[in-house]
Amino acid sequence: MSEILITNCVGTFVLKGKQIEDKRFFKSAEEFHNQKIIAENEKQLLAKYPNAKKPANVIFPQHKEFLSKFYVYHIEHAKKMCKEAIRKEHLIMQAGAAIKDMEKVINPLAKRLQEWYALYCPELNEFARDQEEFVVAVLTKKKEDILLEQHIPVSMGAEIAAADRAMMESLAVQLQHLFAEKRSIESYIEKALQDTATNLSIVAGPTLAAELLGEAGSLERLAKMPASTIQMIGAENALFRYMRGQGRCPKHGMIINHPLLANTKASQRGRVARRLAGVIALAAKVDYFKGDPYVGYKLKEHLELNVAELLRRKEKAKKIVHHEERHHISPRVSHYSSQKRSSFGAHGRTEHHKTYVKSSTQRSHHSEERAHHTNKQRKYTH
Questions:
Q1: CA distance 122 to 104
Q2: Are 31 and 37 in contact (CB under 8 A)?
Q3: Within 13 Å of residue 77, how many CA atoms lie on the same side as its CB?
Q4: Would you state the pLDDT for residue 357?
Q5: Mind listing the pLDDT tens digit for each residue in 283-323?
């Protein structure tokens, strides 16, 4: 039986049947990926066993003495693979998740502070436009200044002790730190996306881009998603309820946080969401395949113009319909199934005749006239 030369993650071996004739162990797992060391070991063994062959597939014999070596190698190899798998986008995803967690902490605490401080000065709720402004006002403005700015002579709040106000201000300080930390993370995400997904950051915004990457799992997965899937990211539960026959089909998922979609009327959000998801999908593909890093500005500009034109057309059509309904104007053009035209096909000349079909407005108008005429006849009969 001829000898067989084999190299695996443990070392280089000469086998004869199921017996190991000779061996050269690797000193570390890194040597298995060093071709020079492998070639040197094989050269030494071939000099000793010149008839040894190197088949393509060989089953290595099971020996207990090698089990620990195999175990150590695979543990080290798994650690190395995990280390190499971590990319910049994973750090961005974790930063985006940190922002979401911070919002879950900030929102209830800010609401609690508003209710707490309303016992002392409820007029501040009308003064502050958002949560952060409310926190700053608690720390910087006195009750008398707030009343003076709003031209209110007497406050509805109770007079409380200084120790009670100190506790409110202590909570406000903590919230102020949280707001500052949130802005710091958002700034970090914006800078990190410049090297990873520039166009996605331009089109979707840094925070939304990080959230989309987190939901998709990686930039590669997001780039391979169709626009319809990106449109529904974050609305999976509502979509599955609709597929089971419960509820309505959702129009969008987390892309509702995009300013272009958030500032759109609810009736137009479905159309805008489709266009936004398509541009986001295109930007992600350009980033993943290392395309033009500045094409995102053109995509964003084209998207804004497209959405503006869409909303303008819809608003114009709505005004026309409102004018017709107000003045009881029937549509001037009837719908028809096909126009009268001639065409030459495989069987000669064919003619398509125009078939008029009344519109829904005309049908409803004629139905009202018939009902009025019938009621008139019944009245004169009786």
A1: 24
A2: yes
A3: 12
A4: 43
A5: 999 999 999 988 999 999 999 999 999 888 877 777 776 66
Alpha-carbon gap, residue 262 to 272, rounded angstroms:
10
* Domain 205-323, CATH: 1.10.246.90
| CA distance readout (Å), 108 to 24, 126, 133, 186 | 65, 19, 16, 20
141-178 tens-digit pLDDT: 988 888 888 888 888 889 999 999 999 999 999 999 99
Q: What is the residue extent of each domain of the chain?
A: 4-85, 89-195, 205-323
Level-2 CATH architecture, domain 89-195? Orthogonal Bundle (1.10)
**Is the pLDDT assigned to residue 41 strictly greater than 50?**
yes
Neighbours of 207 (CB within 10 A): 20
Cα(151)–Cα(154) distance, integer angstroms: 9
pTM comes to 0.69
Looking at every residue in the chain, the average pLDDT score rounds to: 83
- Give 73's Cβ-side CA count (13 Å radius): 18
Closest CA relative to residue 275, chosen from 237, 230, 208 = 230
Strand ordering across the sheet containing 4-7: 4-7, 11-16, 19-25
